[in-house]
Amino acid sequence: MTAAALRALHVPGKPLILPNVWDAASAKLVEQAGFPVVATGSAAIAESLGYPDQHGTPVGEAFAAFARITRAVSVPVTVDVEGGYGLPEAELAARLAEAGAAGCNFEDSDHDAGGGLVDVARQAGRIAALRAAGPDLVINARVDVFITAADQQAVVDEGIERARAYLAAGADCVYPILVRDMDVLKAFVDAVAPAAVNALYLPDGPDFAGLAELGLARISLGAGMFRHLQAQLRERLAAMAAGQRPY
């Protein structure tokens, strides 16, 4: 399946569900369960390789992990490249193509300059350069303004401004990650319609059907599955350490 087919799966109101993976084995399980796309999660991949999230993984190791995943499955793979690992956009696009990725997440957090967000015009320029270097790449532009906002209503206009700029620069989808206020998420979706919007599934938020009603085109689980399985393993290990059967 091509990047064009991946792009076609982004339908507002009929969201693509992405249970993000961290290695080839988890990717195979996602494909076997019938999901039409495999997506990686940056935190899960970084931690599975022994590194912290937010550009903690060496570039070569990150892309080697992506390539192992794309080789393991026959469905398209979209990978989370965080903020691009400091790579020029042309090199980033080339590495994604070499790894066999059909799409990528590209975020506007500035991990290489002490935190904060990349200036909106600069980030739009980076997306435009990535689009020029990878014309077929499905770009999911993350909008990180909501992550640390105490009042998400107060930053919704900035989030919408960023999303519109990224879409104009060539992004296929925008991803306002960690929006907990559903009124804010609905306002965001409506403001950028008919563009595709991705949201993060939150255990204390709406279910998939409820999120679909907001007009989303894509729902990610982020590190959710990885964290869930970690918790189960931690519980089993504690049982073993206490002398109990592991299972």
Automatic annotation (TrEMBL):
<dbReference type="InterPro" id="IPR015813">
    <property type="entry name" value="Pyrv/PenolPyrv_kinase-like_dom"/>
</dbReference>
<dbReference type="InterPro" id="IPR039556">
    <property type="entry name" value="ICL/PEPM"/>
</dbReference>
<dbReference type="Pfam" id="PF13714">
    <property type="entry name" value="PEP_mutase"/>
</dbReference>
<dbReference type="InterPro" id="IPR040442">
    <property type="entry name" value="Pyrv_kinase-like_dom_sf"/>
</dbReference>
<protein>
    <submittedName>
        <fullName>Carboxyvinyl-carboxyphosphonate phosphorylmutase</fullName>
    </submittedName>
</protein>
